[in-house]
Automatic annotation (TrEMBL), chain A:
Species name: Pseudovirgaria hyperparasitica
SUPFAM superfamilies given in the database record: dsRNA-binding domain-like, RNase III domain-like
A Pfam short name: Ribonuclease_3
Broad class of where this protein is predominantly found: mitochondrion
InterPro entries: dsRBD_dom, Ribosomal_mL44_DSRM_fung, Ribosomal_mL44_DSRM_metazoa, RNase_III_dom, RNase_III_sf
Protein name: Large ribosomal subunit protein mL44
Protein family according to the UniProt entry: Belongs to the ribonuclease III family. Mitochondrion-specific ribosomal protein mL44 subfamily.
A GO molecular-function descriptor: structural constituent of ribosome
CDD domains linked to this entry: DSRM_MRPL3_like (cd19873)
Segments for region (Disordered): 36-57
Matching PROSITE patterns: RNASE_3_2
GO cellular component, one term: mitochondrion
Biased composition (Polar residues): 36-52
4Fe-4S found in the keyword field: no
From TrEMBL, chain B:
Name of the protein in its database record: Large ribosomal subunit protein mL43
One biological process term in Gene Ontology: mitochondrial translation
Organism per entry: Pseudovirgaria hyperparasitica
SUPFAM superfamilies: Thioredoxin-like
Main location: mitochondrion
Length: 428, 140
């Protein structure tokens, strides 16, 4: 006979989480007041003395249940939920929002991320439900993730454009991808200790729930088919025209058109199952979390959270440049800016006739040295010097920056000082 | 056409530079009501665990019995590792120390601290030394 392990959840673990969202809050739909059945008389966050812990740990009151008893209890739970919610079938893929306040895992995650106390546990639980786990938009994180995607894109682009006004478009897209791209967000979720779970209403809140594409080869095949549809549809709009940018997302990737999205939805519906990769699910959680923080705690808290968790990450923008013809680009740049044409001069050298010669070459425009680099041959050194000169142009960063979002809001006393705007990258 | 393309790179986390994420996710406390070796553990759970839990809300705490065995506590870490400590015959204070040990651990394996040079991922402020740019030339 398999018996469930006996584990106590203690009321003191919910200290500081007494805040309840206001009635009618759309980010965490549930009834009030919440059930307090497992948490003793004191309720959440109440001061708890020795007697209370002893009472919680009194095993004569714990339920040691068999499998049959467990299923009976779950059936009773479903009946209770059926009374509380208009359409209980909507809840099958994810736990009821009302159990969020009994999950120590969720409370610990809330504290680990130092989320503001105004951020309710029910909403945190909702951000952990991927649309593949629960297709009902009232209980999954899709709508919050839409808001979060835009917020992340806005704050990252604002940071990059204000601090590096001369970044070329391709590098800007890649830097954006490096800061708030799906792979970065997924890595962040793992670094926060998010655990995955197969969806179900019996899962303890605090796990990220989604239908994993990794688990089923069929699902993976369907995913690929749907992606191929997108690629086919986007192949003919790859040319850079007047509406080049409007068809792209924040990472410079193509937006699938509406027809493609419809086709994709049709294809996945026919197969009857939607799946997601772990990267997609992790990223959707972080996006939804940003959306939810914005809704519950406001702009300043969201910006602070973004700065402490995303801008604190390290991305060396200088290392993601890839030049095809740096010497040519540099001469075009000098012509555009009205500088003297660049001239490469040998500054020093050693071992010209040896196995390992080193040449140090600088590119000069008139009297000004634009860049300098060492190389194993004269040509290599000259190319490297041109790259150094171009990088020092493109990576220019103003000393004083005023971000537009930092002067937003009524009652904000800070003064707007216009930032530098660059004419754009060198197009040849 | 633009001649500059870009490589894709993911930004690296620097835990503690902005936000700090504690690496210990969960501590399981296992006790026994009957064994004498659990005396200190039981006393810790009834007297100090609520203080410990309130002081460290970022760690999930579970308490469960482990009948007829020595008391243990198991720490679960973000990197997926676990650390288990047997606290048999320890006093309440010693159990508290062990719980702190689990709480503050990073989850990495214990290894000898070697005197390796620190390698920074940040750029050197003074730039790299180059013999070609040294102020004084040495004549041989």
């Amino acid at each position: 006979m398999i018996t469930a392990p006996m584990i106590a959840v203690l009321a003191f673990q919910f200290a500081g989480l007494e805040y309840h969202p206001p009635e009618g809050d759309q980010t965490s739909i549930h009834k009030y007041p919440l059930s307090t059945q497992n948490l003793g008389e004191n309720g959440y966050g109440a001061t708890q003395g020795q007697e209370q812990v002893e009472q919680d740990l009194d095993r004569s009151q714990w339920v040691q249940e068999t499998n049959e008893e467990y299923h009976e209890r779950k059936a009773a739970d479903r009946d209770r939920i059926a009374k509380e919610f208009a359409d209980p079938d909507l809840l099958l893929g994810s736990p009821s929002p009302s159990v969020a306040r009994q999950s120590a895992k969720l409370a610990a995650l809330h504290a680990r991320l130092s989320l503001p106390t105004r951020f309710p546990l029910e909403t945190l639980a909702r951000t952990l439900v991927h649309p593949t786990a629960n297709p009902s938009s009232e209980y999954n994180n899709e709508s919050l993730a839409v808001l979060g995607t835009d917020l992340l894109a806005y704050y990252a682009a604002e940071h990059l454009l204000c601090h590096y006004p001369r970044l070329p478009m391709s590098v800007l897209f890649a830097a954006q991808w490096g800061y708030v791209g799906p792979h970065t967000l997924s890595a962040m979720a793992s670094e926060w200790g998010i655990e995955h779970a197969y969806p179900g209403d019996e899962v303890e809140p605090g796990h990220l729930m989604f239908m994993s594409a990794d688990q089923s080869p069929d699902a993976l095949r369907m995913q690929e088919q749907a992606e191929n549809l997108v690629l086919k549809g986007t192949a003919n709009v790859l040319k850079r025209g007047a509406n080049w940018l409007s068809q792209r997302d924040q990472f410079g990737e193509m937006h699938p058109s509406k027809e493609i999205l419809d086709q994709m939805a049709e294809a996945t519906k026919q197969e009857g199952l939607r799946t997601a990769t772990a990267i997609d699910a992790n990223a959707s959680f972080i996006r939804a979390l940003f959306g939810a923080i914005y809704l519950h705690c406001g702009r300043i808290a969201t910006q602070r959270f973004f700065t402490s968790h995303l801008l604190s990450r390290q991305l060396d923008i200088a290392s993601i440049f890839e030049f095809k013809k740096p010497k040519y680009d540099l001469s075009r740049l000098c012509a555009r800016e009205g500088f003297d044409p660049p001239v490469a001069r040998l500054i020093s050298e050693t071992g010209r006739l040896s196995r390992h010669p080193v040449f140090v070459v600088g590119v000069f425009s008139g009297e000004d040295e634009l860049g300098q680099a060492a190389g194993a041959s004269l040509d290599e050194a000259r190319t490297r010097a041109a790259v150094a000169a171009l990088k020092s142009w493109y990576l220019y960063s103003p000393m004083e920056v005023t971000k537009p979002s930092s002067v937003e809001g009524a009652g904000n006393k800070s003064k707007w000082i216009p930032n530098m705007v660059d004419p754009g990258e060198v197009v040849t | 056409m633009p001649q500059v393309t870009a490589l894709r790179a993911i930004s690296k986390a620097q835990n503690g530079v902005g936000a700090f994420i504690i690496q210990c996710k969960r501590i399981d406390f296992h006790y026994c009501d009957w064994y004498g070796s659990s005396r200190g553990m039981n006393s810790f759970i009834t007297n100090e665990l609520s203080k410990f839990g309130k002081a460290h809300p970022n760690i999930e705490i579970t308490v469960s019995p482990r009948p007829n065995k020595h008391p243990i506590m198991v720490g679960h870490y973000i990197n997926g590792h676990q650390k288990a400590i047997c606290v048999r015959n320890l006093t309440k204070e010693q159990v508290h120390q062990k719980a702190d040990l689990l709480r503050m651990a990073s989850g990495e394996k214990n290894r000898k601290v070697m005197r390796k040079p620190v390698i920074s991922t940040n750029e050197n402020v003074r730039g790299m030394w180059s013999p070609f740019h040294a102020g004084r030339k040495y004549e041989i």
